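Lesson 9: reading folded outputs for more than one chain in a single document. The general rule is that every protein is listed as its sequence immediately followed by its structure tokens, and records are never interleaved. Here is the first one.
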Amino acid sequence: MKNSKKVMKKKITVLALCAMLFALCSPAQAQQPKIPRIGYLVSRSAPGPNDQGFDKGMRELGYVEGQNIVIERRWTGGNLASLPELAADLVRLKVEVIFAGGSEPVGAVKRATGTIPIVFTTESDPVGSGLVASLARPGGNLTGIANLLNELAGKRLELLKETIPRISRIAVLLHSTSDVSHLRDTEAAAQSLVLQLQILEVREPKDFDNAFGAAKKGRAEALIELPSTFLATHRKPLLDLAAKSRLPALYEHGGFVADGGLMSYGPSLPDVYRRAATYVDRILKGASPADLPVEQPTKFEFVINLKAAKQIGLTIPPNVLARADKVIR
């Protein structure tokens, strides 16, 4: 009888301990932090230096993908028509914040949601295009970094003129989605430098052939492209035709030069993407995009590809070469 009582007491004690442990564990389990998910939308088909810049920025802020952050990545593969569907998919996932790289992805995400915070990088004027109310106080669910390449229009033309001192006529390649304010600033800069511009608009990749044919017919001596996601996405045929036409060209960022282009001058996009990660971090910690001022790039790069110069028979003047931040030999 005594043994039965002892056994019963032990069972009661064990049950009581189990109940205490369960009571202690349950709140701990309930309080485990939820791993935040962020959406990521770009127009490329595979990760590149820009995406590495973003990932580097997140790591610097203490985020480890798969441990304390989940990144839902969506790529267009060069098919910009898929942007609305991809943006809608991220909205359906109810992510905490969406990063959109490039003007067209930003536009698609903005149309898809008016509530989920959006961090952007864009080549367009975010105020003029209606993305935000002002740079200082965006006022809605969007904020980020605006490259504001308009202000670089004069510098890019100056670099071309220093490279080819006798130049007088430059072809300007643009897409139908290019920011028209870029064109206006380029035209104003050309007038002050006594340069004539030949405007060439493309809508589809098949239009590149006609554009370069028109540039040759118009006796263009060099080419610049006005920033757009389309031209960046379809840059291979653009670069191939520039080389085939032996037409010196200056592009918006170093990715063009790394892929075989002659020269570029503009913001360092990997650095821009890295800085965009700080916006994602601040929003995840409770900040409102409406109160986070839109920033401008702080790091600019002048890149020259000497292989491309040799291919078209162009000698880069020593004074221009000395100013390059990076030279591909």
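And here is the second record, again sequence then tokens.
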Amino acid sequence: MNYAVEVFYNGTDLLETYKKTPCDLIITDIMMPGLSGYELCREIRALSDVPILMISAKDEEIDRVLGLELGSDDYISKPFSLRELSLKVRNILRRVNGTQKTSDSQISCLDLTINTDSREITVNSQILNTSNKEYELLHLFITNKNRAFSREQIIQSIWGYDYMGDNRQVDHLIKRLRKKLLLAEAQCKIETVWGFGYKVSDKD
């Protein structure tokens, strides 16, 4: 596939350009002049749920977890091949575009509603700000209410079959989403299915 790519040499210029001209995907290094990749991810997430792929020479789990907790969609460590990078980009865009096209209506669970056209999540008519991964996870759960998903099934649905990390990333994502639902006082809750995984129930 052919992509129109614009290159920036620091995070500050990328952020200022994105505010004026949004794009479909951001690929960012962590160590950059101006804003670091982590800082850029935080700033972008305050504006948009555009997919973010982080690249770094760092390969420690804590670095990957921090990037994901700040809202990045995936992580790739140096050195990597162009084929691997292309595969990750293609899979991220396919998942995002596929989620956008899956429905032209609203789906709901108790007091939580997802508008699949605008990708907005509301709790009692108040917008719940979520990252792309958080949106996709809630969409997965609410389109399959009362069905339990294992961590492996969630990884395959949200990150894709080529994901190379461990399944603890699911727990981090669940933790962030639960916190947001709690702050919004949502009746719709993510339940733990002990020894297996997670589910959302439509029973108050």
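What the second record shows: Confidence is low (pLDDT under 50) at residues 100-104.
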